[in-house]
Design brief:
Elements: H1 3-31, H2 36-66, H3 70-127, H4 130-226
Helix pairs in contact: 1-2, 1-3, 2-3, 2-4, 3-4
């Protein structure tokens, strides 16, 4: 196996490995029921794996552009397009998994809130103590405020995560469009060079004919004057 093919095989292995890791993280995020810190850790790891996957795909695209064989180059560029489509699909699944997880955490938090409220009400009815009731209400209020802030932070961080993923998706699409445009320019340049090459041959032929005609005229004039 030559060095070039070995490098391509290594890139393929990196792409497959990163894609599998991204898929596994998407499943973990979708099944996450809290706490919020765990979801944030999964998101950080997921963004890192997505970035690694995109880098591997870009490396394959770079190798494809440098490939001398047109057939091999076409095959590699087709693989790059396929991997980019898979990346876009993974980005969409990553966003959806985050939305699902946030909804689950929000639901569980509300259920916990209702359960805590019922428990405190029952305790208040048993004690019939104004002072205890005041303390319980204060504690419940603090809990409610804490959970409310927790939910607000969760919503904000999820929104930030979605914005980051949307920007990454736009960059991937932009890169694909740019590569397609460059490919079209290269093909057009090849056609123009071929056209100019044919014109150069025609010009050389015309010059040769003109020179031959000139020599014929000179020979004819000399012949007339000498003979």
């Amino acid at each position: 196996m030559d060095t070039g093919q070995h490098a391509i095989d290594l890139i393929h292995q990196d792409i497959v490995k990163n894609h599998l890791q991204v898929t596994a993280l998407i499943q973990d995020i979708q099944q996450c029921t809290g706490p919020l810190e765990l979801l944030n850790e999964l998101n950080v790891e997921g963004r890192a794996k997505i970035a690694a996957l995109k880098t591997s795909i870009d490396n394959l695209a770079t190798v494809a552009e440098r490939e001398l064989s047109e057939k091999k180059k076409t095959e590699l560029l087709a693989e790059v397009d396929t991997y980019k489509q898979q990346l876009n699909t993974s980005l969409a699944a990553f966003r959806k998994a985050n939305v699902i997880s946030v909804c689950v955490i929000d639901k569980l938090a509300k259920e916990e809130l209702l359960s805590m409220s019922e428990e405190h009400q029952a305790a208040a009815r048993r004690r019939h103590d104004k002072h205890s009731l005041a303390n319980t209400s204060s504690h419940l209020t603090d809990k409610l405020l804490s959970i409310s802030r927790h939910l607000a932070e969760t919503t904000q961080r999820s929104a930030d995560t979605l914005d980051t993923l949307i920007i990454s998706s736009d960059k991937v699409t932009s890169t694909k469009d740019e590569l397609e445009h460059q490919q079209q320019v290269i093909v057009q340049c090849g056609k123009l060079l071929g056209k100019y090459g044919r014109r150069e041959v025609t010009d050389k032929a015309l010059v040769a004919l003109a020179f031959a005609f000139f020599l014929a005229c000179v020979f004819y004039i000399l012949q007339k004057r000498l003979f």
